[in-house]
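hey can u check if this looks right to u? its 251 residues, i copy pasted from the old doc so theres a chance i mangled smth
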Amino acid sequence: MPTSEPSLAGKRVLITGGSGGVGRAVAGRMIGEGARVLIADRDELRLRQVVEELRAERGPGEVEAITVDLSGAAAADRMFDRVDGWLEGLDILVACAGVGAEPLMELAETEWRAVIETNLVSYVASTQRAVERFRAAENKEGMVILVGSISVHIKAVGESVYNAAKGGVASFAETLRKELMRESIRVTLIEPGAIATGMQPYSAEERARFMARQEMLPPEEVAEAILFAATRPRGVDVVTLRIEPLVQKIV
């Protein structure tokens, strides 16, 4: 008989990229399950709006926010100061901060470095600090969920810098899981296809048409995949979960 899904009630969750399409959707689902959620992102006005929306939904959980630009070296420490202060510990990290990128030769060095800092380095920095908290906890447990991309498999023209970062996330996740599995710390890699979020170079109306044609994923579907991973019983680890729209662009 399958075991029941563990409850997220009272779980302490940090979501980076928390005001984006996927981050906001994950936060809403987890608050609805009773989790205490800290969302982090760089757009203060958008963060305030998202917090107001999430509180208006009146889920049983709680939400707070911190404004940080995770391409900066000191940002992770400031973010985890808030983790220690408001959450008073951590059970789950969901790293989904991300920015898109043009082809390498269309980017200044400062631009491609910012893409890699946000899409890869911030994942490593956040994970290291999360694991420190897991190890310090009484039960010594925790979960890291890293949102990568199927772009590393497709390798589409124009995505060289983006793929360099997301490929790093994939290798990091798969290797780190082996390093931590004996400590009851789980690591999951989520690899979505095209998602209808603001990262796409299309208007909201165009994104809605892509979803209607099953060419882009609704952010809520990616959030459901993350929630599935986060609610597996102890001893069950979703190693890699790839989710695509039915008609995924592959060139």
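The helical segments are 21-32, 44-56, 75-87, 109-136, 151-154, 160-180, 204-212, 219-230.
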